[in-house]
Amino acid sequence: MAAAERRAVTQLALVMPGITLTAAPFGAYRQRSDGRYHPPAWARAQRPEPVRDDPRICPPTVPGQLALFPAPYRMISEHAGSILDRPESELPDAQRALEILRSYSDRQGYIADWRRQAQRMLRLVLAARRAAGGGPVNGRMIKALPGCRPIVAAVLDRAELLSEETNTYPLPQSAAHHQARTRAPISCAHCQAWGFGHGRLCRGCRIWGAQSRPVGDCVRCGAGPLPLRENWCYGCLRQRAVLGPEHDHASWRQLRLSERTLDLLDARTSLRPPGRRAATRNAETRPHPLVPPSPVPHGQQELFPAERNWAPLKGAALPNPAPEAARLLAAFDAHARAHAWTNDARRAAAHVLRTAATWLGMNTPFEEADLRAIRAETGRGSRCRPRALNAFLAERGLLLPQPRPATRGSVAFVERTIAGYPPRIADELTAWADVLRSHPNRPPTEWRTLRRYLFYLKTPLADWARRYQTLRQVTADDIRTAVTAVKGARAHERAVALRSIFRALKQTKLIFTDPTRGLRVTRHEPLPETLPPDRLAGLLGITDRPAIRFALALVTLHALNGTDLTRLTLGDVISARAQLLVRRPHGRHTVHLDSLTLRLLHTWLRYRHQHWPHTTNAHLFVTRQTVIHTGPTSANYFPASFQRLGLTLNGLRTDRILDEARHTADPVHLVRVFGISISTAMKYLHTAHPHRAGVISR
Predict the structure, then answer these.
(1) Were 213 and a residue from 227, 296, 377, 534 both cysteine, which residue would form a disulfide, CB within 3.0 to 4.6 Å?
(2) How many angstroms separate the CA atoms of 182 and 190, rounded?
(3) Residues near 29 by Cβ (< 8 Å), separated by ≥ 6?
(4) What digits encode the pLDDT tens for the residues 519-540?
């Protein structure tokens, strides 16, 4: 064992007769006094000699020759080193330009390396000028240089070798400006952090500005324009995180070192700006100035309605909540955690609720307008979930809802449009709107329907307003002219709107005869079309989402539409009978579930209970957005989900009904199976059996 340890290791050699190899002299890379490693002499001797005047770099062209098309210049640092020995006689005006460069370098005191680099770039651009025909140097040549572009442009400008129209590259500042810049301390242009090195912005401001923030003047320090968050710049927010909010009203900034400077100095002390967690913990431990609340006394009545200004509470600290408000906040926190809210959304909604409970009290319900104003003016609107918070308060009877702005917009449009007509026509249109909105035998017509009717009749009503004083003067010929002026679906829409107006006026006895009586407008309806077989193959295998798989089964097997899917509730599922109750405006339709659909239903119900066991939403289909309130999914949820799979909901439903119509000629069978009307069933039967359709006599 000892002999094995003393054995020397020898490199295996290959001996081939007739071939001799010259051994390289021994030596190694050695570190010299300048701190760098230099190769030995034998290694330097094996290097090829560099080409000092490569004729392939910027070869001369025939003087006066014009280029067919401008080609882009490509210059790299190796090109400048390949023409170092090119005589100055082949570079016109090179000696004069180099003298200007030397004098400028001597005045500014530039180092030798920078001088050599600038001389190389100057010789390279002069060689490119000679290759281009010897004219003035244009901006494309300056832009193609790999370095020293400003100083080269300045030297060529003083030597009168730069073209007059060259303005594509900014020329350098004066020598005094360069001298002052080299001696002045370097600081960040945004947060004034000192000592971060080269560049205009420190690392924090560069990351801060790259996040698509609004630009403006900071409300605290007044600096700007800068990227802001809640109207504060990055420097003020960092100062508040370190020093606390007691200096928010001052306009001064604490001098600090940048992150890069601290990294270079390895200053891992308390001077380093704390991270996000440390800053939050520091701000929470510091005493905050309390804002005294002024809740509305119980039973005090309102003299006149006034909007509250919540802007002064932005960034202010609130006092400890009252016992009733604390219990409400604790219940809300448990509700949000049970429904898997994100931390940002939960904290933002809790701040809005705490502000409302502190300033408005717990004796009266909160108005939805006040909650919206708190979210907008305190900077919590982007993270708070308004519908979820409103649903939480509505369950406890603490919310006064506000009408939707869309309804008010439709009402304003109808009123504004009617008021633009002559007085008597405006009164008649107002009576028409009142009849539709307050009909005793049917539900009131929605305002958006009245808006569509007025939009359809914009052109004929404007024409009649110029010729007539009242709608009594409108004749059947005027109605026929207005309808035949357009074609297709637009003619049918205009006829429906005209019939609605004149029937309502006849009902209120404002006109004696109905000019739309006997008006008939045929509308072309496209026939149902089937889907290709390759689109229907493996439908349930193209997605693994339980809700979409169950919806696909309901559409492709039982022909439910998107409205039926969104209206389904848990009470509509009858598991003991394997049935599903579909509620429609004209009645109820019972769907008998097959084994596949029933298995998909159970899979979806298990998934729903595992992910949202505490949701109070009674609808059968829920999403991450709807589990926090009691409303249905959006009308575009299922069509958009099917479209991402390359399918359409209406196309699948039409294909299912048409396939069933091919196997039967009884419309009653289609009505019982799919719950459709007789007219719809006849349309599918005529499409499936065109030879059985009756011939219309002429």
Answers:
(1) 227
(2) 20
(3) 37, 38, 39, 40
(4) 877 665 555 555 555 444 566 6
Residue 225: cis peptide before it, omega within 30 degrees of 0: yes
- Pairing state between β 366-367 and 226-227: unpaired
CA distance 389 to 399: 10
CA distance 42 to 278: 59
Tokens, residue 155: 């030297």
**Under 8 Å CB-to-CB from 51, ≥6 apart: which residues?**
82
Q: Which of 185-199, 232-246, 598-612 ranks highest by mean pLDDT?
A: 598-612
Angle at 565 between CA 562 and CA 570, to 5 degrees: 170
3-state SS class at 406? helix
- pLDDT digits 0-9 by tens, 331-351: 888 888 877 777 888 888 888
Quote the tokens at residue 46: 């094996």
Q: What pLDDT digit, counting tens, does each position of 458-467 carry? A: 999 999 999 9
| Residue type for position 552 | L
pLDDT in tens, 469-523: 999 999 989 988 988 888 878 888 888 899 899 988 988 888 888 888 888 776 6
Burial of 24 (0-12, 13-18, 19+ CB in 10 A): exposed
Do 139 and 168 form a contact (C-beta atoms < 8 A)? yes
Query: Higher-confidence residue: 133 or 263?
Result: 133
Q: What is the DSSP letter of 657?
A: H
Q: Which residue has the tokens 């448990």?
A: 334
Contact by Cβ (8 Å): 502, 514:
yes
3-state secondary structure of 296: coil
User: Token pair 């200004």 is at which residue?
Assistant: 309
DSSP state of 137: B
pLDDT of residue 432: 92
Residue type, 541: G
Q: CA 34, CA 42: separation in Å to the nearest integer?
A: 21
Q: List the one residue out of 355, 344, 314, 347 whose CA is nearest residue 232.
A: 314
Cβ partners under 8 Å of residue 251, min gap 6:
220, 221, 222
279 contacts: CB under 8 Å, gap ≥ 6: 238, 241, 242, 273
Q: Phi and psi at residue 558, in whole multiples of 5°? A: -120, 5
CB atoms within 10 A of CB 252: 9
CA distance 530 to 496: 31
Give the tokens for residue 482. Answer: 């207005």
| CA gap 340, 351 in Å, rounded | 18
pLDDT higher than threshold 90 for residue 604: yes
Distance CA(234)–CA(87), nearest Å, equals 56
Is the pLDDT confidence value at 32 over 70?
no
- Asked if residues 102 and 142 have their Cβ atoms less than 8 Å apart, the reply is no
CA 675/CA 183 separation, integer angstroms:
86
State both tokens at 172: 């350098």
Do the Cβ atoms of 497 and 453 come closer than 8 Å? yes
Q: Where are the alpha helices (DSSP H) in 267-322?
A: 276-285
Q: Which residue type does 156 have?
A: L
Do the strands 215-216 and 226-227 form a parallel or antiparallel pair, or are they unpaired?
antiparallel
CA-to-CA dists, residue 117 to 51, 83, 254, 481, angstroms: 18, 13, 41, 84
How far, CA to CA in Å, does 413 sit from each of 11, 451, 454, 574? 95, 7, 9, 45
